[in-house]
Structures are given as structure tokens and as C-alpha cells.
Write a structure and sequence with these properties.
By secondary structure, the chain is of the alpha/beta class. It is built from 10 helices and 19 strands. The protein has 2 domains: 146 residues, 3-Layer(bba) Sandwich (Glucose Oxidase, domain 1), CATH 3.50.30; 200 residues, Rossmann fold (3-Layer(aba) Sandwich), CATH 3.40.50.
Length: 358
């Protein structure tokens, strides 16, 4: 079926549908990864977004369920230049179109993703609408786009059932704002018992588990919408329990200490983003997926030091707090399919729980 993507600036891009062909409104973003689309599709941080892949061919190795970062895909639409006609991999469980159809996610192929990405880089992230059919009412599409507003998706993606993973001697209370499974796996393989708490859990809820440390997960959207979480993290910080925060968790901890956040023009989404460790001057290649960052000008030097910065735009990529018990990063050290350059940060967290120094 024919498909039409319209952006809020009125530009349109034609393609062909695949997967679940249903009209959808979304925030249109791009990702520069060449592989890892299974992990991307199932990353809760993409909730509410239509993802444009800059690499031209998708679907060549199908979908392997073992690589999923959550129980289902969360994005609103998947936009590619070329859909592979064959899914060739011995681990493949299902091909990409069937996976999207099973999970009611629209796909569009044949889009000029190179041109579309240039528009998003120059004009910034935009709202958009994808319609399927033989003809399109562009005036009505533009009207719906103008009325569309992104709402917080954290309540949608956060777990509700307080699941427990692992049976190790170190107890970690994990604040689930849309956690990726590999964060949990990275803790479990280091000897942790991880109990997940929903996005609106209180400090008292965390402490009822008698944890040795607290993990703050990734998640979608604007951190300033998570007011309850920010309030509870003030108590976490004041208590002084070892805490490691990733992505949205990093932003929420910063807000809890009076720092500010802002939205990037088009975000950081891909698996090849260089960041610099300011303590060693070493550069690491990282996986990233975020549209908001901490405002460096609002960081109180008596409260936290900047630990990592982006080599692309100089934005804040990590903070180390002066209480000696909290540190956070904007990127994903648990990244799957990679890179795994910064996996040592989980070891740093373990050392911190054991009385080591940052």
C-alpha cells in the first residue's frame, strides 16, 4: 500500500507500507546505527517516536527474540530506505515485516531517508504523520499534526509488577523509567539481585527492599514531566546510598539537585557517538538515544563535577556528585549490540557499593 509521511513543516515523503499499515502520529527522529534494529525497536526510550534509519538497508538478518531489550516494540513507526527481501541468519526467529505486523507497528520503505535526515538535521526534530492508502488528504493530515502533542510515555513503558531478577548477594533497587533488559543483565552477571520499581515509586518503596545500591534507568521523553521521580530522587541523594543513573535517570538526578535540562535540536541516536572522559582524556565510542541533555551552565560545582562530554557538540555526557555516592551518564554503557567500551562503569558501581572510590 502507498504511504505518505508529512512533517509539521508541510514537507512530504512518499513510500510503501509494510508491517502493520495503520495511520499514525509521532515525533520523527533519526538513528545512524548500521545494525541493532531489533534492540532499537524494543528500546522503550523510543516510545512515541517514528524512527528514520540513516543506514539504507534494514531487515537483512531478521529478528532474534533473545536480542530484544523489552517484551515488545515501543516506537510508533519504522522508516527505512530499503527493506531486505531475505532475512538470512541462523538466529532469526521472524522477519522484520512479520515482527512489526504482529506488534501493530507501521513500517514505511522506499523513503528517501538521506533527504529526510538532512531536513531533520537542519530544521530539528518534528512532529509528523504517516498515512496509508491510494490517496491522501494533506490538508487534514496537517491539521492533525498541528493538534498533536507528545505526552509523557514513562507511565506507559515503566513496569508495574516489581519483578526480581538474579539471586546474587548484592541487592539493587532499580527505578524503571523504561529500562533496557541489558541494564538488568549487566547487574545480574555481576552478582546482583535486582528488584524493579515503577516510575512513581517512593524513596520508602526503594528502601523497603533494603538495597545496597540504586540504579536509575533510561526512559523516553522530557525529564521535566517526571515530577514525582525528581522529588523522590532528592531523598535518594540526601540518604547517600550508592546510585548509578543512565540516560533519563541521569537527567532526573540532575533535576533533583537543581540543575536544568533542555531539548537538543535533533538529539543523539546511534551507536557511534564519541564521548571524552575528562578524568583521563580518553575518548570512548558509545551508544546513545536521547533528545534532552543536562544544561552545563546550571551545574553547581559544589554539588557535581562534569565527568564526560560529547566530542560532537560538547554537551554533558556524565556527572560525578560530590557526595561520593552518586554518578551518572547520558550514554548507554550496557549497549547492545555495542559498543561495550564503557561497560566498566558497572564495575565502578559495584566498587562503590563495596566501599571503593569513584
Amino acid at each position: 500500500m502507498k504511504a505518505l509521511l508529512m512533517l509539521e513543516n508541510g514537507m512530504t515523503f512518499e513510500g510503501t507500507g509494510f508491517g502493520f499499515e495503520q495511520d499514525v502520529l509521532c515525533e520523527v527522529v533519526f538513528n545512524s546505527a548500521m545494525c541493532g534494529y531489533t534492540e532499537l525497536l524494543t528500546d522503550p526510550s523510543y516510545a512515541g517516536q517514528g524512527v528514520v534509519m540513516t543506514y539504507p538497508i534494514m531487515g537483512s538478518y531478521g529478528i532474534c527474540y533473545d536480542d530484544a531489550e523489552s517484551v515488545r516494540p515501543w516506537l510508533k513507526a519504522f522508516i527505512v530506505h530499503t527493506l531486505s527481501g531475505v532475512a538470512s541468519n541462523f538466529r532469526c526467529d521472524v522477519d522484520l515485516p512479520a515482527f512489526l505486523k504482529q506488534n501493530k507497528i507501521p513500517g514505511v520503505r522506499g523513503i528517501d531517508t538521506r533527504a529526510l535526515t538532512k531536513v531533520l538535521r537542519e530544521s530539528g526534530t518534528m512532529r509528523g504523520m504517516i498515512c496509508f492508502g491510494s490517496s491522501f488528504d494533506t490538508a487534514e493530515m496537517k491539521k492533525q499534526i498541528e493538534a498533536f502533542a507528545m505526552k509523557s510515555c514513562v507511565p506507559l513503558v515503566s513496569g508495574k509488577d516489581n519483578k526480581v531478577y538474579g539471586d546474587g548477594p548484592v541487592k539493587i533497587a532499580l527505578a524503571d523509567y523504561g529500562v533496557k533488559s541489558n541494564i538488568i543483565r549487566s547487574l545480574v552477571k555481576r552478582g546482583c539481585t535486582v528488584k524493579c520499581f515503577p516510575y512513581d515509586a517512593s524513596f520508602e518503596d526503594f528502601m523497603s527492599f533494603q538495597p545496597d545500591g540504586i540504579m536509575l534507568s533510561n526512559g523516553p521523553g522530557d525529564p521535566k514531566e517526571c515530577t514525582k521521580a525528581v522529588s523522590e530522587l532528592k531523598k535518594v541523594y540526601a540518604h547517600g546510598i550508592p546510585t548509578f543513573a543512565i540516560c533519563l535517570g541521569h537527567q532526573l538526578m540532575a533535576l533533583s539537585q537543581g540543575f536544568d535540562t533542555y531539548k537538543l535540536k535533533y538529539g543523539h541516536r546511534g551507536i557511534n557517538h564519541p564521548v571524552k572522559d575528562l578524568s583521563t582524556n580518553r575518548v570512548y565510542i558509545t551508544s546513545q538515544n536521547h533528545g534532552f541533555v543536562v544544561n552545563g551552565e546550571t551545574i553547581n560545582p559544589s554539588v557535581a563535577d562534569i565527568s564526560f562530554i560529547s566530542m560532537n557538540d560538547g554537551s554533558i555526557e556524565g556527572l560525578t556528585y560530590k557526595n561520593g555516592k552518586v554518578f551518572s551518564v547520558q550514554f548507554h554503557p550496557e549497549a547492545s549490540p555495542g559498543p561495550l567500551d564503557t561497560g566498566f562503569l558497572f564495575d565502578r558501581f559495584m566498587n562503590l557499593i563495596g566501599g571503593g572510590q569513584l
